[in-house]
Design goal:
Layout: E1 3-13, H1 19-23, E2 26-35, H2 53-66, H3 72-86, E3 91-97, E4 111-117
Antiparallel strand pairs: 1-2, 2-3, 3-4
Helix pairs in contact: 2-3
């Protein structure tokens, strides 16, 4: 299967379990991999036959900022569900990183990864 990737999309958001996370935005990092048969583009150079990356990013940003969530897992599910229902894709893998997670430990980031198919 062919794949389109958007890597390390940075979006500010007020998501988290604690009140202080909801008050002061943190920057989240998102990777999305979209799986779709791209062989149809063999004889054409038509954007309408593939996925418009800017539309994917717009949808992710919109969902990310629509409603505050406690869990990045919830955000990941909402984003994947929307992409699968509104674009001609076969599956999507999404990663959301929260490098500023309020955990008293020396770590680079926490990350949720989900893979969803039609």
């Amino acid at each position: 299967m062919d794949k389109i990737s958007i890597l390390n999309l940075k979006i500010p958001g007020n998501h988290g379990v604690y009140d202080f996370e909801k008050e002061k935005p943190g920057t989240f990092e998102i990777d999305v991999e979209i799986f779709k048969d791209l062989s149809i583009l063999q004889d054409t150079d038509d954007l309408k036959k593939t996925i418009d990356y800017s539309e994917i990013i717009r949808v992710i940003q919109k969902i990310f900022n629509e409603k505050r969530c406690n869990l990045i897992e919830t955000l990941a599910e909402k984003i994947c569900d929307n992409l699968l229902n509104n674009f001609l894709i076969e599956s999507v893998k999404l990663r959301i990183r929260k490098p500023h997670a309020p955990i008293q430990a020396n770590f680079e980031t926490v990350e949720v990864e989900i893979l969803r198919e039609k």
